[in-house]
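Sanity check

After download, print the first record. It should look like this:
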Amino acid sequence: MSYEAVIGVEAHVELATDSKMFCGCPAGFGAEPNTSICPVCLGLPGALPVPNRRAIEMTVAVGLALGCRIAEESEFARKNYFYADLPKNYQISQFDHPLCLDGRIEVDVDGDAVEVGIIRVHLEEDTGKSIHLGGSGRIQAAEAARLDFNRSGVPLLEVVTAPDLRTPEQARAYAAELRAVVLALGVSDARLEEGSLRFDANISVRPRGSEGLGVKVEVKNMNSMRSLQRALAFEIERQVGQAERAVPIDPETRHWDEEAGETRPGRGKEESSDYRYFSEPDLVPIRVDAEWRDRIGASLPELPSARRRRLGDLGVDPVAARLLASDLEMAAVFEDAAAAGADPRAAANWLTGEVVAHLRRSGRSLAATPLDGGALAALLGMITAGELSSTAAKEVLAGVLDGEGSPAEVAAGRDLIQIGDADEIEAAVDRALAAYPAELERLRRGEDRLVGFFVGQVMGETGGRADPRMVGDLVRRKAPG
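Expected structure tokens:
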């Protein structure tokens, strides 16, 4: 029997507000443990929450970007459970009255469009952080645990998809698209390695073609796009294997072990009734009227899908367009280069090709280099004007990225300006032809590949500063004798 997976993804996004969701404590990452805390985020008796207006606006912005209906009235609820990193023994979240409902987003998977339904986007507070010491770092093998409550109370936005995904590749594409949307809106830095963007996935398998749903398993602890894809692939294979052997699949929460490359049992799967939700008595409902909603909608920037379409209309390659739509720093350099007169296709290709390759080799971010749109446009202009060969331009780009100056300064400093004197180039061609008479005779007999050999000789003599196309034309013209 052939099986298919049914996948839904829950994304948790830490919002980039200055303060926490219900108090004035700083919400930033990286402070010394337990230094950004107060009676409210620790849940001390008598401390009352006050909602963060900016977090509400960010959530509405995400909902609008995902095509959601914004509820005119929503409310917070208490989600009751007991864990060491939850000081109040309940989390302020949203349950049956979330801020955003019934959205939809389209993602591209290897050229195919996949539509993913968004059930809800709601707002809640984050928990603290448990650090398990000893063993594997998991609670089961820990020798001790430490608690850091700095994260407790940080605004957390949750995006819940419909079970519309069928493969690990679709889930990864959705996660990447959601991250791109979040970054474009500026509501989070969406750094998976710091936990400001986290993904959980619900997976079941069923006979292909059937409409029912299998037993749902939740997988946690996936801290990269690659981890998400690998964890889902493993879990699908595990569940299909059990289904084929008629072994029951337990409804449970499992954790992804990156090093072992497998999911491992965690705990039994809870249902919403297990959390005993009820309306938060210390907070009034949130009312988002049409004026507030429309004002937030009018402030939305160009979204990744719209940017990809626009770049495609400019002739930019789809792969390059996807990267430029998801990387704000690179997109800014591209836009500035195009505004300065650079050909959009060339600017995109150099950015997503040579620039990205250099950054990977050096381990730097684009923001850590001096390259801007004006410098990129100047470099491309020198190529178009015949002042730089493509090989020399790569060397000039490396110099610009390393802080040696503008493209013109680097080219002059490294003596890479292309020779524009036709007589000088012709003389270099004559010397090359005279130096290799045997190869010249073979070229005359029809071995056209030897044109490249002579071009290489001239380029070597001139330090790469001759125009290779001009050299090739001269070799072909002079070879017949």
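If your output differs, re-run the checksum step. Summary of this record's structure: The chain has a mean pLDDT of 92.
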